[in-house]
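tool=predict chain=A
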Amino acid sequence: MKILICTIELPPIVGGAGVYLSNVISTLLDNEQNEITLICPENANALNNDGVLITIKSKPIFKSSLLGHIITLASINLEKFDKIVINDLTYALIFSIFYNKYIHKIIYFAHGLEPELVFSQPRSIYKLIKFKRHYFNFLNATHRNAFVSADLIKKFKEICSYSRVDDIVCYSPINIQEFSEIDLSLNLPTQFILSTGRIIEEKGYPKMSLVMFELFKNFKDLHWVIIGDGSYKENLLRQSKLNFFSERVLIIDNIDRHRLSTYYSKCRAFLLLSTFRESLGLVYLEAKSFGAVCFSNNIGGVNEVLDESDYMFNPFESTSLIVDKISQHLNTISDKDRSFKEINLFSKSQFNKCIFELFN
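tool=predict ok
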């Protein structure tokens, strides 16, 4: 099968659509009969498998601009491809307006914020070109659409009344091969709560800081390890200093995703009280795969990942109740030998079945 993959999401970013697409490409390359052509940004790390995967980059003069991608597509014979994979709104826009005669070949993967970005809170350019209408028609004309969670399908129906009977939920897989072995030499606090991702208000950091400062008063050896960066970082550091807890809040700049295994396996709990309607919440899934107990707001598709061993709160829940629940957990015996355990629903084999269904 000749497959064209168009994306602006490579190289992968932790938790992003690029990570998901990398798994799609890996699965497709398992079939030696698939001949794949990839259009990606100039700085993408091209995947290669004995020449099976061809990388076509945007012309340098246009770099990764919309015009650059349109011109790159114009140089390709789209007729020769059996299927076309679209993984982002940029290429959904390009095909829906400029190459709509090929939409019937497209397998489209939706990841989370598309309903808001196109329908409820559209960008100015989307309003100008009436992308809402084009995108809705695009969704209904593709070969198949796949969504990262059942909640994302629900959100599409709520916001734009979109519905197709052949839609499929294709959960992002978590595979032990994506992570390095536990690094026993890493100097981590003996007891810490972990948070990962962008350090912004919408991810719940103002409320989380109040929770952690209360916990610090009762658990003298407890630390808060945060992996990430963002606009709320300096505010968080300032609050920690004012509350005399600066030595117990450790912020680590973004690290390679494969190195997160040591942090997930050693933390006493994973805390992220995001106020976003997360379509799935890949970081929760990663933490849970390493046996971490998760504390989260019950919004969006997070409850498709977490279960009765975790704690999910109403977004307006009191800080005191959250502190109480985490305290109860911290007072239990710590499992110090946690390792990766595959969750069947989010396994690579289950993901491969979904991809096979989409392409056959």
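Confidence is low (pLDDT under 50) at residues 45-62. The longest strand covers residues 35-40.
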